[in-house]
Amino acid sequence: MHAPKLFVIFQVCKEEKQAGAVQIPVMYAVERAAHYTGVSECTIYRLQVQKPPTQRKIRRDKVTLDEFDLCVVRRTLHDLLVVQKRLPTVDIVRKRLQESIQYQGGEKHLRRTLHELGFSWKKTQSNRSILMERADVVNSRVEFLRKIKKLREDGRTIVYTDETFVHSAHTMHRSWQSKDISLKVPFSKGQRLIIVHAGTEAGFIKGASLVFKAHSSTGDYHDEMNGTNFLKWLNEKLIPNMPARSVLIVDNAPYHNLQTDKCPVQGTLKADVQAWCGGTILFLSPAC
Asked: Taking the model in full, what pTM does it have?
């Protein structure tokens, strides 16, 4: 009850004490309640019709699980997911627990228990990335790691190289700001700079950096970095500055793999095929 209403009741009781009698006869309960609380009689009548608010019962689980039982639940999920590669449902887990720890709880109790243990019912992950990796790719990676390990044991310096780009208007996409104070970032990306460099575990190689302005409008820096530019940078900047007994590691970009004498294909011109063969081409008649 609010403090103003309590004050009204106190004042009425104080007046009745001074008068030595009640102001309203006890047979008029509604009138007395309205007089004491300072509310209308309609409010008192309305309260008589309404049911008193019931206190919400505190949920008490009939089934209790100790630390040992919770470890069994966790191991059951782990066995289904990791060992047996099965999708665990509440029904499957419940049957397993009934056999192992004589679990007597229902599905709702088991769901709450799984949530408390950190499990959640969500979309399963696909194994597409695993299926897409071919056996020859895995073998090549293993062979590469073995060679790198052997080179490092021999004291060789491993040099890594790569290319990237940066816009002249590069900026952060988020910042602290308010409705009145904010920083406007450039709308245009500006000029694009292509960066080529190489480095070891000790840092970048001095004198091996290459930075030049891109002129392509495709938005892909690979159009600017071709085999000719890469070989020129390799011979003029990287190799002269590389440490002795170094091993260069490059990725599988197209301009890192150039064929000096390509094999003719179906669309190759006749003259180019003759030049590649180093002789003349004799066409046999169908009768042959």
From this structure: 0.46
